[in-house]
Please model this.
Amino acid sequence: MLKVLHVGPETCFVVSRLIKEEGTEAFGVEPYDVEDADEACKRLVHKGLVRVADIKFPLPYKAKSFPLVIVSDALDYLSPRYLNRSLPALTRLSSDGLVIFTGYPHKQKAMSVNKARYGRSAKLRSSTWWIRYFLQMSLEENEAATKKFEQAAAKSSFTSNCQILHLKSYR
Model:
């Protein structure tokens, strides 16, 4: 059974999709209020599959609780101070790896409309910025996962509109 943690907006949607996959146990952290969420999302929160928590602070999970942690559209809104806390903490939750979905710098204008919801504008960082950051934080790119993903994407003619970064877990 693959145990997955999804962190980011739209977590209820992602978790509801993942739990339908055979052999997958999914949990989520929604970093923003779900007060206006639909009933399906509120049921996931009530069942404990989705938590509402600010990722700037430690999450209530033990180290290596999940083989895979997926972080989508959550890191772009963190200041460097909170990014330095949050990303290592998220990496410690995974036993096999971390996948990060983050925006491209040239798409900054399109994402700035979310400022009201997230409290600040997105700080979209280049792939070279991320590589330097990973080195500073002693995080390693998961080259095998990256290569596998790129092969699968090419095979299916998939083109991403965001950066997809694969990291190894802390050992």
About this structure: The chain has one domain: 2-167. The beta strands are 2-7, 24-30, 50-52, 66-72, 94-102, 163-167. Residues 108-116 have pLDDT under 50 and may be disordered. Residues 38 and 87 are 29 Å apart (CA to CA).
